[in-house]
Write a structure and sequence with these properties.
about 100 residues, alpha+beta, SAV0927-like, DUF3055 domain-containing protein, globular
């Protein structure tokens, strides 16, 4: 059993003001999406997208939306549901940016 008083080796620890958009929508598949989309200065301009029903979260940018089957895998969706989520996310995700 590990010692609960052992020291932790923090690699990062910061606090940042973020903005979160809560969105609920239903597509043609009749699947209800309840999402929290958090904008932050981290992740090279990508956003944290959480499915509030199943707790699955991903860091996404529009480049990720072009990866076949990516959303379906992360959020456990069928092809039609993935297409509906992809359509919505193209409207809210900005282009990623990279720094040195």
């Amino acid at each position: 059993m590990s010692d609960p008083h052992q020291e932790l080796d923090f690699l990062s620890d910061s606090t940042e003001a973020t903005s979160t958009r809560f969105v609920t929508f239903i597509g043609g598949s009749l699947k209800r999406f309840d999402l929290a989309v958090t904008s932050t200065n981290r992740f090279y301009g990508k956003k944290l997208v959480m499915d509030l029903h199943n707790g699955r979260t991903a860091i996404l940018g529009t480049d990720d939306l072009d990866e076949e089957g990516y959303l379906e895998h992360i959020y456990q969706l069928n092809e039609e549901e993935g297409s509906e989520l992809r359509t919505f996310l193209y409207q809210v995700l900005g282009e990623p940016y990279f720094t040195d």
